[in-house]
Amino acid sequence: MKLDGRRESGNVEDRRKMGGTVGLSLGGVLVVGLITLLMGGNLGDVLKNVESSGGIGSQAVQTREFTAEEEALAKFSRQILASTEDVWSAYFKAAKIGAYRNPTLVLYTDATATGCGTGQAAMGPFYCSSDQKLYIDLSFFSSMKKQLGADGDFAYAYVIAHEVGHHVQNLLGTLGQAHQQMARMSKADANRVSVRIELQADFYAGVWAHYEKQMFKSIEQGDLEEAIRCASVIGDDYLQKKSQGYAVEESFTHGTAAQRMRWLKKGMDTGDLSQGDTFSLRDNQL
Q1: Are 230 and 155 in contact (CB under 8 A)?
Q2: Mind listing the pLDDT tens digit for each residue in 15-24?
Q3: What phi, psi does 120 have (nearest 5°)?
């Protein structure tokens, strides 16, 4: 992905020096949390499992200098966020949706306070609708590579664009409506709604990629394949089979590998928000 000379977003809070931990390593925390969430657990389950594994310790001010790789990832994240700002601002204007409000990206280490409670690295990158911020511990990208074999700058960009996709859902009112429905449902039914939320965010990430390529000509040979490969290894079925040898469909919260790849690619191909209604489809149509 060609980003030389591209602007960096100013809507970034860098809290990485505010965190430091003892106890379970970050890599271990990520694995525990990722498996817990993708097996149908919730944030409470993640925190309980992390605690039982030794915890992540308490926050302390860091004095270490960041490595060149960490700084490069931080710059990359700021550039991708800037791209999403440009793409979605232009799309909202052209579609007469209204003004696009930029989210804030928070870079942190291990744990941080959020409008949705304490954010943990174990949760992976996430979006909080209460404060309209997306949170990323950059070590997640290393874990993607080591634990899942998902690597490449465009795969990382897809992760950020997916979380921005949740922000788009929030601005359009979709996310709030879905969360209200989930609060009145059984866990199994709420999981089915969650799958639709996540697949639509994948679709929106694809829409971003469609216009990123069109507006900036930055996408190179192999980039789109990186994102699709990433989508394939973060499907619920793939991760559950990898961790326990079998998959439990009722516990899916993000969609299967095939579904995630399909909706990401559909967004890339169409660039049309109206093609991304995952909520009115039956389960076998997703």
Answers
A1: yes
A2: 998 754 433 4
A3: -120, 145
* pTM of this structure: 0.83
Taking only the tens place, the pLDDT of each residue in 207-237 is 999 999 999 999 888 888 888 888 777 776 6
- Token readout for 161 is 């664009």
For residue 3, the tally of other CB atoms under 10 A from its CB is 17
Would you say the C-alpha torsion 200, 206, 210, 215 has a positive or negative sign?
positive
CA 205 – CA 209 distance, rounded (Å): 6
Amino acid, res. 102: N
Tokens encoding 44: 């409470």
Domain parsing of the chain, residue ranges: 12-17+68-285
